[in-house]
Structures are given as C-alpha cells and as structure tokens.
Design goal:
Number of domains of chain B: 1
Strand content of chain A: 15-25%
Distance between the termini of chain B: 35 Å
Structural class of chain B: mainly alpha
Number of helices of chain B: 9
CATH architecture of one domain in chain A: Roll
Number of strands of chain B: 0
Distance between the termini of chain A: 73 Å
CATH superfamily of one domain in chain A: Phenylacetic acid degradation B
Largest interface: A-B, 14 and 14 residues
CATH architecture of chain B: Up-down Bundle
Radius of gyration of chain B: 18 Å
Shape of chain A: flat
Order of helices and strands of chain B: HHHHHHHHH
Radius of gyration of chain A: 23 Å
Shape of chain B: globular
CATH topology of chain B: Ferritin
Oligomer: heterodimer
Helix content of chain B: 55-70%
Chain lengths: 101, 251
C-alpha cells in the first residue's frame, strides 16, 4: 500500500486555550484514517483536548540560516536592555490606589 | 427498578452474559493482531479497540457479578468453554485481515443496533453503562466502516468472500437469550431481538448495495449462542491459562 506512506503531522492541545504543540506524526493513506490514527497515538489515554492533523506537504518550511541566523550582531533587535521593573511597580501602585478610591 | 423478581433477574443475567461474552471474545481474537497488523498505525488502533472491548466486557461482567453474587474474574476466567454465550460469529479464528474486517464490520453494526435498544432499558444500571459504551463504540464503527470501504475498493473479491463466510454465523448476534419474553415484559429489553435483526438488515442493505457486497439469505439460528468450535476451545485455553496456573491467586 504505497499511499500509506503519506505522513501527517499531529498537533495537540491539552486544555482549551492552551497552545497547539507538535506531538509527532502518523502515516496513513488518507485524511480519515490519519484522524483515526492521530486519535489512537495522541488521544487514546485522554491526554488531549483537541488535535490538528496536517498533511506534511501542506507545511511550508523555512530553515535558511541566512534568514534565521544572520551573521551580524542583532542584539539591538532584542528587547533586553529596557528595564521595565520600575514602570511595572509604578503601574501596580497606580492600579492599587485607583481601586482603593 | 432496584429489586428484580427472580424470573426477570435470571433473564437479565443471561442477557448480560451474551453481550459481555461477545465483547470479551472479539476483544481477545482481535488483540492477536498486536505486532502483525498491516501497518504500524493500524496495529496500535486494532490493539486499542480490542482493549476497549475487553474493558466493556469487564464492566458488564461486574454488573452481572453484582446480580449473581460472584466476581467478574470468576465469570471471565472460571467457566468451561461450553458455558460461554457469545454469538457463533466469534467462534472463528482470527484468519486474515479481510476476514477480520468483514467480521468486525458485521459485529460492530449489529452491536450498535443492540446497544441503541439497551440504552432504553428499564434497568437503569444497564442503560447507564450502555450509554457510556456507545460513546466508544461509535469510533469502533467509524473505523471499521473506513476499512470496509477501502477493502471494497482495493480487495473487493477477497472481502466479499470473507463476508460470505462470516454472514451465516453473524445472524447469531440476534439469537435471543433464554428468557427473552420476561425481559420484554419487564422492558429490560425494549424490543425483541427479531425486530433488532430486521433493523440491522435494513441498515446494511444500502451500504452493501453501494459497495457491491453480498448479502446472503440466512436465518437466525436457535443454537447461535451455544454452539462452540475447536477454534474457540483453543482461544479459551489461551485466555484462561494465566488465571488457571494458580487457582485462587490474587493478581
């Protein structure tokens, strides 16, 4: 059964509102059996609230190091260096005093 | 209905035994696919479905044990092969994948009709348990329907001959338990098995016509739940071997 070599990526959500996290993959000839097998592999022990089953070929992959790991210093694009601790404390104090009024 | 008179109580015990033994025996047969199913994914699916069936059997045996003052393990593992009450369909060995799909499709569809009726039973402990069982059985049925359709397209003749072989003994799922009249009178069983049989055939006909699969004419056999075979005697020896190795032991 050559079509059974189709690979489906399975994403799981543990509770409503949680992010969908990649769980792994199953092989199945079509979407219907892929759903059944995803349920068996990633849901039969009641460990999942929701599954997404995606054919691997539908995924667009980006792994070009020139785009993802460019060689120049990028530290100025990172949010580090901003100290928000004092701003946060001030905001909390303001919120508390508004509540107290 | 909390207290049952002796007659419906005995009939209910017979009914529970037939459903439980069906689930128990098909669960054991199809668990034999563990490790050798056609694809790894199907291996896990079939093993998981078989475990579900044995779980259903356990719940039914426990309900029965409460009625008859014994325990579920004694009912499951302490009876001789001749005392089992599963349908003759489940007397056959596992055989090949086409036969497994054919048998299981016939079983799941028949079981769905039976459970839909028992969900309306006047005996609340049974209707509550069956309502829970149906939530798992609906997936079993979906899965076997998926396989029936794929084999009908990819291996039509092999599937058709497996269905022809399984068909006569599949009718035995509707062989009524002893005491059916008392069950009907107490509304423990809302519809007679003859009506359930007709309902099942009515559901199968359009599917089989669509897939060009054979429906052989066959009656419901009166000995459909008492006939046993060498294949089943072998399976019985397998599933009682551990419990029988140390009588009375706590596992």
């Amino acid at each position: 059964m050559a079509e059974s070599d189709r690979v489906w990526e399975v994403f799981r959500q543990e509770s409503e509102g949680d992010p969908m996290i990649h769980g792994g993959s199953v092989r199945a000839p079509d979407e219907e059996l892929a759903m059944h097998y995803a349920r068996e592999f990633y849901g039969r022990r009641q460990e999942s609230h929701r599954l997404w089953v995606v054919p691997r070929e539908a995924i667009t992959e980006l792994d070009d190091p020139d785009l993802l790991q460019p060689p120049f210093d990028r530290s100025f694009k990172k949010p580090g260096g901003y100290i928000i601790k004092h701003k946060l404390e001030a905001a909390k104090a303001r919120a508390a005093s508004e509540k107290g009024e | 209905m909390s207290e049952l008179d002796a007659v419906p109580r005995q009939a209910l015990a017979e009914l529970l035994l037939t459903v439980a033994d069906d689930e128990f025996v098909i669960g054991f047969w199809d668990s034999e696919w563990t490790g050798i199913a056609p694809m790894l994914e199907e291996d896990v699916a079939m093993s998981s479905i078989s475990q579900d069936e044995i779980g259903h059997a356990r719940a039914l045996y426990e309900l029965l044990a409460g009625l008859t003052d014994t325990d579920a393990d004694a009912i499951a593992f302490g009876r001789p092969a001749a005392d089992f009450r599963h349908a003759a369909l489940l007397n056959h060995a596992r055989t090949d994948w086409a036969f497994t799909v054919a048998r299981r499709y016939l079983y799941e569809t028949a079981d769905a009709v039976r459970l839909a009726a028992l969900a309306r039973s006047s005996y609340a402990p049974l209707s509550e348990l069956v309502t829970k069982m149906r939530r798992e059985e609906s997936y079993h049925l979906l899965h076997m329907d998926a396989w029936l359709r794929r084999l009908a397209a990819a291996a039509h003749d092999r599937l058709a001959s497996a269905l022809e072989r399984a068909w006569p003994d599949a009718q035995a799922i509707f062989t009524p338990p002893a005491g059916e009249a008392a069950l009907l009178e107490a509304a423990i069983l809302p519809d007679p098995f003859a009506a359930l049989h007709e309902r099942w055939l009515g559901q199968l006909r359009p599917v089989f016509a669509e897939l060009d699969l054979p429906i052989v004419s066959a009656a419901v056999p009166s000995d459909g739940r008492t006939r046993r075979t060498d294949d089943f005697a072998w399976l019985h020896g397998e599933f009682t071997s551990v419990a029988g190795s140390e009588a009375g032991a706590t596992w």
